[in-house]
Amino acid sequence: MSEPAPAATPLEELVDAVSERTDEEPESIRTWLDPFTEDGTVTPAAVESSVTDVSQVLATAETRVDLATRTHEEATAAADGAPDLDVVDVRRRAFGDRLDDLRAEVEALGDEFGEARSELDSPVAVYRAAVALHEVTTDAQDVVRVAHDLETELEAFEAWISSANRRHDGLVDDVEAAEESAESVAEVVTALREADEPDPERRFDAAVQTRVLDLVVGDLRAEAADLRAWADRDGVSFPDDVDARIDALEAEVADHAAALAGGPDWDDRFGERLAALDAELDAVEPPVAWARVDESVAAARSALSDDDATVDETATPGRQ
């Protein structure tokens, strides 16, 4: 560590000094300073060791992002040979955005690490450095995990690009997942119909899920059209029953929506949330940016929670 390390100081003396200057509890301060402590004393050697450990974790994060970058380059090169279709472009752009976010995160963590290791000229600064280094470690470990997941998904994307069977199997899997979600909503709709006093929160959540399923149907239909065009270009077969299944799914979702709309009038608490959600979802077109949809749905549910309504936390049936 090139920056001056703090002089060896008894832990309890440092805890008392920090406690006097901050609102932190002594026990919390003591816990944060533990990585800097040897035999009851905060020592330069322990600080040096902790900084080195964090540096290694950060270096691992940088390496994982570098590996993801190389995998992204390979997958992008493979995608260059694919036809100019939304089904390809939306995936490629999403991967690029996620990689950009990881690069920015690693750069920011490097800056935070540099600041933490250089500010050790007072008891409070040492304490804050300990907290900051812990946070850098935690965030860097998250980057390692996310970068590894991204690399795996990029490898799968490259395989998807190169194999019509993988593309078609993936579409069929998504259709099946949507059908299962629609069946779950059907069970809720049936239960609401049979109830003497239907639970409004449960009805609201089913209405939200039905709206999302309607987007899923449109997204699946658009993807099926693109994959069929790709199959025609390459002279390979396309699953015969996909269109019929999507049509049946669309009809089922419409039935659920009608059944939910045909119930009692929504009170203002629910009606306003659904109207706001409808306004946002009406502007969404395939290929659907599911992260944005998830945010809109979460906001609608959160608004109800703020109103002290207990909303069913069933997962929204969107797509990845």
TrEMBL record:
Q: Cite the entry's keywords alphabetically.
A: Coiled coil
Annotated segments matching region Disordered: 301-320
Q: Which segments does the entry list as coiled coil?
A: 92-119
The reply on keyword Coiled coil is: yes
Q: Is the Coiled coil keyword given for this protein?
A: yes
Q: What is this protein called?
A: Halo transducer protein
> What species was this sequence derived from?
Halorubrum coriense DSM 10284
